[in-house]
Amino acid sequence: MHKSKKAYLIIFLMIICCLPGHTLAKVEGLCSNCHTMHHSQNGGVLSEWGESGPYKALLINDCLGCHMGTNDGTNQTPHVFSSTAPTYGDTGTEGNCLAGGNFYWVTQANGDVAAHNVAGLANADVTLSTPPGFDGTYTDYEGNAAGEGSWAAGQQVTCAGTYGCHGHHNIDDSVKAIYGGHHAAGSTIDGSSVGNSYRFLIGILGMEDTDWEYQPTSTAHNQYYGVDRGAVPDRQTINYLCAECHGDFHSISGAGSSSPWLRHPTDFDMGNTGTSSEYRNYPGDVSHTYSVVAPVANTDVSSVISTVTFTDDTIVTCISCHRAHGTPYFKLMRWDYKNWPGGGTNGCNICHTEKD
Amino acid sequence: MRCGEKSFVMNGLDILIITISRTMERQKMIQIFSIIISLFFVLLIYGHVAMAGPYLDSAHGNTGYGVLRTSLSAAPNDYAKGNCAHCHEQHASIGGSEPTPLSGSASSFCIFADNLSGVTANPYSQSDDFCFYCHCYTDASSLQTSNFTNYDHSHTFGGYSSSTPASIFAAFNQTSYHNLYDIQDFAQTNFSSFFESDSNPCVACHNPHLAKRNKENVTDPSYTAISRPTVHEGLWGDGSGEKMSDYYSGHYRAPYYSSSTSTYEPGGTSTYNGSTMPDYATFCIDCHNNTNTIYSHALGRNLKTIDWETAGGESGGDKHGKNAATVGLDIKNPFASSGLGVTIGFALSCLDCHEPHGAPNVMLIRNGVNGGTLAGNIPSFNSSNWPYLCCRCHQDDSSHGGSSYKFKYVHHLSSDSPYTLPEPNCAGCHGAGGDLWNKSQIACYECHFHGADDSYFASGLGKTATGRRTF
């Protein structure tokens, strides 16, 4: 091959490699990777299967069983629970945690304050018997409310189902609640089904990063869907997902509709602030590079943005500050807010750029 | 070949040298380029981390003495000193419950209690103003660990240690005070770029994310605690051109420090030109100028306007400001021998006479002025005790063989007195009887207040006003 052609090929391949990758939710591979017909193989149970089978839908394990492990950037199953301490670092963007963090920390001392106490993984929260800020009127995109609108004291959160984040809220069982999701094409994230919802979060929109934000960069990350808040909340934003259990933190009455806020705003575009405001300096310099430390949502999730323009693409989200599964830090914060200043990390200044 | 031109004929060695040199240059260029590219990406990735703002330098954000709400000082809510959570509750709760104080509902700006209760006059209770929760020392139950004092301006910068308010809360509960409701009312209209309807009135003058502890560094205005209402996003007093020495160059003379005739405010040092204090004049006239209308709920009227800027003698503004005395001054030291090369035309700092928060005297008049404590309080505008203030700087008759707190000399006997004796009708103003030095004195407040002239005499006293500006 001519040298210049080789060079063009190499450049082309490099460009292809650099393009942001996005995966489809659909699981691929052998059926036996996930299913067993009889929960028996040669009269026994395979070591890679769960120990408390048989499982519904002929699965070889439960949610945590399949999603337990250590991420290395090549794994095809996102690992959200590790048996050993994940590497997290200051902001969770350089180790082996994914976008949602890791449930590992809920199993550790003082774990109640570090992660969601998912049933089957950890005991109920000693302090919080119900989700703080729970508002049973926050029905999901399908019109169903978590806990059917009433959260019984002591009821633990589950991966999916009535008390879960994933799948349908009107189905109690976690497996049934996401039934079919893993087999859906997922080519269009429109919230119409579990499989066609962002990360199986029913109704929620967004663009999914191929490797679930394993060591994300400004060009390779989830693109979260958000809107600039109005009187009627958009039930497809990533913030609304959180509001389904923590509604008071999101509602107009609970948080306000404009500054001065009663609670930290979400679903609010920082582009609403004055052009000289500190927020217009996100993420702390004039580059306006999308920050994976404190990510913001976009009304347009048709592509991944690497820089923000403050036109409905700098929307504050719950997960700008928190990770949904867990982190090593107090209140599932993405960084060690509690020990700052003096120690810890100031991630707040990604948006509050003058507060440093 | 002309002289000075190089030959383009090169031998093999020349070519080798040039080739090597170009190769080295290219390599060097590549190295430099690589370094620049690397630095660019380092800055791109870590640029925001490297940038530092002023919050950590502020009194509230300092890791050694910053905010630490006691109820958030123990595990599991053991937030670091200076952390935002000591003032702001992002979800109006922490861990599903509300830490002390229990305000009962979410508050604007995500702070732990409402900024202002709506009360229109003092006495204030602690819950009337958000800042009082910590700035109360032992005058209420402070939420801050460890507790701390905020003495008044006279005490802190003037050395009047007997000046008693030890907290901001107590300072506002004195005879006169900066009315918090009025400030909020005025600021939300006039400083709407940053001040909102629910903003804390203290924020009109202080930026809580910037304010420093001037009280611990009284002679260093880089530790200023104030921000001009018109320039809220920066401190005032720390920058070039922001000192009293800059307000009206060569015309500010700091008053004596408490009980001293050789040291001066602030801090009791030998510096007297105002270079160690913020330009309080410019600061105050952001609001108190000759154009703003400021309504006082306590007084039930608009405040008198203040023209601290306009020169022009009897047609100018206040002579305590940039306007100069038109004749002479029978004034005391350190002004009489100011060392500035001027004998008239001083421009005072507002805080030479006034407290910023509150005072035991009317109109926020300080308890100690120009080296001495006032002989008594001035409880009302119509008080006869105003001489206690005026004589701190102006010569009373005791300097001329008469009585203390009397001002016959300056009004009638001094070479530049406005009403030189013999006056045809003493009794018209002073009543009949009494000896030369002890006639009934016209109250100071009749003629001497911001914006005043001597038109008092036009009120049927049988005396023609001179038209002099009398303040």
List its traits.
heterodimer, A: 356 residues, little secondary structure, two-stranded parallel ribbon, two-stranded antiparallel sheet, B: mainly alpha, 18% helix
Structural commentary:
The complex is a heterodimer of chains A (356) and B (471). Chain A is mostly loops. Chain A is built from five helices and four strands. Chain A is globular and about 70 Å long. With 471 residues, chain B is an all-alpha fold. Chain B contains nine helices and six strands, in the order H-H-H-E-H-H-H-E-E-E-E-E-H-H-H. In chain B, a hairpin with a 4-residue loop joins strand 2 and strand 3. Chain B is elongated and about 85 Å long. The N terminus of chain B is likely disordered. Chains A and B meet through loops of A and helix 1 of B.
What is the secondary structure topology, with strand pairs?
The complex is a heterodimer of chains A (356) and B (471).
Chain A: H1 3-18, H2 63-66, E1 158-160, E2 164-166, H3 174-177, E3 206-207, E4 223-224, H4 238-243, H5 252-255
Parallel strand pairs in A: 1-2
Antiparallel strand pairs in A: 3-4
Chain B: H1 12-50, H2 153-158, H3 168-171, E1 176-177, H4 180-190, H5 244-247, H6 280-284, E2 295-296, E3 301-302, E4 358-359, E5 368-369, E6 372-373, H7 386-390, H8 408-413, H9 426-430
Antiparallel strand pairs in B: 1-4, 2-3, 5-6
